[in-house]
Amino acid sequence: MSWWHYVEQFFPNLSSGPPNRPGLPDIFCISPRRCEKSGPAEGPEERFWTLCSRDGNITCLDFSSNGKYLATCSDDRTVRIWTTKDFLDRDHRSLRANVEFDHATHVRFSNDCRAFIVCLANGETLRMYKMTKKDDNITFSASPEDFPKRHKAPIINFGVAETGKFFMSASSDTTILVWNLKGEVLASINTNQMNNAYAAVSPCGRFVASCGFTPDVKVWEVCFAKGGVFREVCRAFDLKGHTAGVCGFAFSNDSSKMATVSKDGTWKMWNTDVEYKKQQDPYLLHTGRWSGKEPCRIALSPDARVIAISSASDITVYNAQTGEVEEEFLSVHGVVITDLAFDTGNRFLVSTGDRAVRLFHNTAWYRAAIADMNDMLKKATNKGTKERLQQQIRDAHKALNAVMKKKN
């Protein structure tokens, strides 16, 4: 399959790009290096558009592991489920689930994409909603009881293992709890980082990691016996090299790479595909600079080619291999960005803040892929391989130009 046919699977309307959407508030027009608020987006330079506008401030987003859905939660006491295949369409419809007597600060899909879990702001615990599909409709039903309240400090994040064997919740003190899906605590971890700034489950479902006041990221493996019975949580490895507290981190889709961002003004890219049980340590691939303006968040594209860092209300996109700045988007939201993520197919970068979800074409991914194929072309010795790479490079340039609304 050619590069172009591969891209067309994900961009069915690529020839025309994202359509104009008159009537939607807070749309931005984007130049390659800067975005400025200018009312409804029009014209050939549109590369950034608004998925929705809501009655409350959006606090979190999450993509389902199958890539079909995007969940967002807001302080208007709702969770909305969006279909990713509609991102480039003129109309965006969502399904709404109400959060009774509270609102959600975080939302995460279950591993089978048939449920989602929210963190309750006032209840300071977790609640599960089942998604039931009947005919063309999806209905939501909350579990009869919320998960027991076990944290003594506010929950800062939680995540569900792709294996379905456990999920993790972390609070702002130094506590991480590992749960089974029945709501029973399997293990409690003291991170010894003075306070937790961020924690997450790896996409492979093996690890949990945390960062905080200390200049490192700590990673643990959640171990199960062959029969699926929980065994233990053991220390796997640390990411060391920053000189100040780590604000956040992100995994690649296969968990073989991680990106970190620190108060010391640097971000780092790591290879974590190591045999830690044989005392092999992760090794540093690249160090880059960022503005240092907090609060910040970091996102790593699933294939680890692109890094995005939000700094207050701005976003900077980097080539993860060279460290070069690919794009800068200023004042993306009217308030601090609350969440930042790439979709599972590397197509979009999505941010939340104020009452809107902003979507960007991930053009940096095309450029990074083209650079990789050019490197492969230089090393290729087989004539057939060279011709195939040359064609794929041409197709990739076509796809990039179509997204950028420019002709060769």
Automatic annotation (TrEMBL):
PROSITE patterns xref list: WD_REPEATS_2, WD_REPEATS_REGION
GO cellular component: endoplasmic reticulum
Repeat keyword on record: yes
Signal peptide per UniProt: none
InterPro entries: WBSCR13, WD40/YVTN_repeat-like_dom_sf, WD40_PAC1, WD40_repeat_dom_sf, WD40_rpt
Residue stretches of each WD repeat: 51-82, 148-182, 239-271
Lineage: superkingdom: Eukaryota
GO biological process: endoplasmic reticulum unfolded protein response
Keywords of the record: Repeat, WD repeat
This protein's name: Transducin beta-like protein 2
UniProt organism field: Leptobrachium leishanense (Leishan spiny toad)
